[in-house]
């Protein structure tokens, strides 16, 4: 066979291509959050502390949005405000304390999940707030614009949040 020898293309070559592809991902809001928390760490005198504080603040915002979404959805099912608040509190506590949430808070590299979740929940809350007969058209359009902006922000944080429109459609049709 007069075929020229080809490169091995083995595991090392594959790993290098994966690293290059990972490095080329564009997550501008994630990167901006790293810059902001690095600055915060500089002001505090400890860069890592700034990153962990930023991740904790993002997690607390996720918990607050989870509470709001659960409250609005519970109320939309006809629950009394008191029962809806209790259900929302239980949901928020689960989000706050669940062991799967620890990576997003304790590991700096886990921030893309927390940041994307923050914007995904903001999109969901905005979309749910946009509905209902009591909402005027202009206000409904403003909530829908906020939902779209939050969706774009989630995509700019982590590309796997591309599923948000499908999830929001399920909420709307559910």
Name some characteristics of this structure:
174 residues; mainly alpha; 0% strand
Mean pLDDT: 87
In this structure, how is the largest beta sheet organized? none
- Give the C-alpha Rg: 21 Å
Elements, N to C (H/E): HHHHHHHH
Span of the ends, CA to CA: 63 Å
Counted beta strands: 0
* Secondary-structure class: mainly alpha
> Strand percentage, roughly?
under 5%
Structural account:
This protein is mainly α and 174 residues long. The chain is 76% helix and 0% strand. It contains eight helices and no strands. Helix 3 (47-76) packs antiparallel against helix 4. The chain is globular. It starts with 10 loop residues before the first helix and ends with a helix. The model has no long low-confidence stretch (mean pLDDT 87).
What's the arrangement of secondary structure elements?
Blueprint: H1 11-23, H2 28-44, H3 47-76, H4 81-97, H5 102-106, H6 111-129, H7 137-157, H8 164-173
Helix pairs in contact: 2-3, 2-7, 3-4, 3-6, 6-7, 6-8
Quick structural summary:
76% of the residues lie in helices and 0% in strands. The chain has 174 residues and is an all-alpha fold.
